[in-house]
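for the recovery benchmark. tokens below, seq after
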């Protein structure tokens, strides 16, 4: 019975954020994703290279909308994505005939590695999974997936976060680097 009681939760819904906070979060997310997409679509589309992956959408929520979260800090953004990409590519290459196993092992191992290195960034789990289930366009990149799109795209989004998140007087990013 106690086990099921834990599922009720023990806290309350977080308070609403101000209109200003919503605006800066929106602007950062728009500009960050736009910067990556503007480099991807005109220059890389059809080349077999990528600069944008789905997990960047989740990173945008953290680095523009939850800027004080430990999970949103540069160490976590960059380390979480890069380590997870490495794990995902390795799992795919080692277990390719068994995609169900590669997918599960990639995500679970990425989480464990992010915990061990203190770089937990939830979108990293998606980055690892994309390396396994992303299809030929991703698989053909091999370990280049770690550098382009993952590391390069994350750095671009980080630069935008540094510029946008510090414009408003009541916002500061990052809380820490290392």
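predicted aa per position
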């Amino acid at each position: 019975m106690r086990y099921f009681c834990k599922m009720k939760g023990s806290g309350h819904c977080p308070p609403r954020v101000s209109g200003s906070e919503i605006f800066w979060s929106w602007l950062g997310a728009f500009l960050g994703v736009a910067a990556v997409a503007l480099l991807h679509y005109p220059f890389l589309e059809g080349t077999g290279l990528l600069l944008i992956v789905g997990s960047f959408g989740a990173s945008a929520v953290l680095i523009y909308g939850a800027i004080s979260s430990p999970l949103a800090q540069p160490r976590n953004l960059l380390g979480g994505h890069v380590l997870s990409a490495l794990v995902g590519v390795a799992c795919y290459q080692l277990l390719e005939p068994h995609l169900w196993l590669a997918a599960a092992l990639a995500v679970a191992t990425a989480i464990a590695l992010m915990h061990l290195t203190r770089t937990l960034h939830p979108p990293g789990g998606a980055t690892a999974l994309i390396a396994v289930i992303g299809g030929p366009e991703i698989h053909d990149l091999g370990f280049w997936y770690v550098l382009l799109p993952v590391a390069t795209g994350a750095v671009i989004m980080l630069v935008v976060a540094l510029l946008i998140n510090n414009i408003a007087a009541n916002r500061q990013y990052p809380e820490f680097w290392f």
